[in-house]
Amino acid sequence: NSGSRSALPDQDQNSMLQVICSQRDRFRKRLQESEE
């Protein structure tokens, strides 16, 4: 299945990246809040 993973349409890849980025932003904000 690793081959089909790289053959994802741009839309699917973009949505996945957006989810990952939003999760990362949330994680970063949490870290900053806990550090203060």
Automatic annotation (TrEMBL):
Residues covered by region (Disordered): 1-20
Boundaries of every CASP C-terminal domain copy: 7-36
One GO term of the biological process aspect: intra-Golgi vesicle-mediated transport
Gene Ontology cellular-component terms listed: Golgi membrane
InterPro entries linked to this entry: CASP_C
Transmembrane intervals: none
Pfam families noted in UniProt: CASP_C (PF08172)
Descriptive protein name: CASP C-terminal domain-containing protein
Species whose genome carries this gene: Nymphaea colorata
Lineage of producing organism: Eukaryota, Viridiplantae, Streptophyta, Embryophyta, Tracheophyta
